[in-house]
Amino acid sequence: MISVYEYILIFIHLDLGIVSGQNANSIGELISSPIVTLILTCIIFLGALYQLYSHRINIAGIISMICTLIFFIGYAIIDEISLISVLLFVIGALLVVIELFVVGAVLGILGFISIIASFVLVGDSILNMGIIIAVSLLVTTIEWVILVKGFNRKIPFFDKVILKDSTNKESGYTSHDDRSHLIGKLCTTYTALRPSGIILVDDQRIDAVSDGSFIQKDQEVRIIQVEGTRVVVREI
């Protein structure tokens, strides 16, 4: 059993580049121990979630990335990590990033599942790692509730890619040219209205309908109603 003092010496030697294979294995065993693994996974998930709800890269996101490297390197040292686990993590991370640019949640969900699976497959006991991941997700869920419900935090990236302005008439948006100013205006029929046809308004051709009666060509009419693109006229 290696004491805390000996672990400190190991990390010092690591910084100096003179760690022996035995010391490297000791570091790997320390990182892969249940308590340290739980602490690392909690920090990874908590930091990643906090970074997701932040406007810029912060210390939480940086620490999360560092802990992720330590986690995988530690298990790689003791040869308890597979290529599948690494690939699942990389693919999951890519899917989550792509999800930020794509409407929908399918890619994000698949990416999240891939990341969780990559952590569960690390180590020699899927059951133990599954329990650790479950505890980490529980703690992360509590953080999410605090951020969203307590501090009303939102994912900043979505503010840039999602249109939040109301596109109604009250907000100044219309899906067509506003012709309400034509009500009461006198014009002439360019074609016969049977009951629909074309009228001339200041030498501009506009589709129109009569208020019910048939109107011949070149007749003077008055615009009595405008509803969207529908212009209703009445013969004078």
From TrEMBL:
One of its GO terms (cellular component) is plasma membrane. Residues 181-234 form the NfeD-like C-terminal domain. SUPFAM superfamilies: NfeD domain-like (SSF141322). Residues 36-149 form the NfeD integral membrane domain. Its main location: membrane. It is a multi-pass membrane protein. Keywords: Hydrolase, Membrane, Protease, Transmembrane, Transmembrane helix. The keyword Signal does not apply. GO terms for biological process: proteolysis. The keyword Membrane applies. The chain crosses the membrane at residues 35-53, 59-78, 87-120, 126-148. One of its GO terms (molecular function) is peptidase activity. It holds the Pfam family NfeD_membrane. It is found in: Membrane. It comes from the Bacteria. This is Membrane-bound serine protease. It comes from Mammaliicoccus stepanovicii.
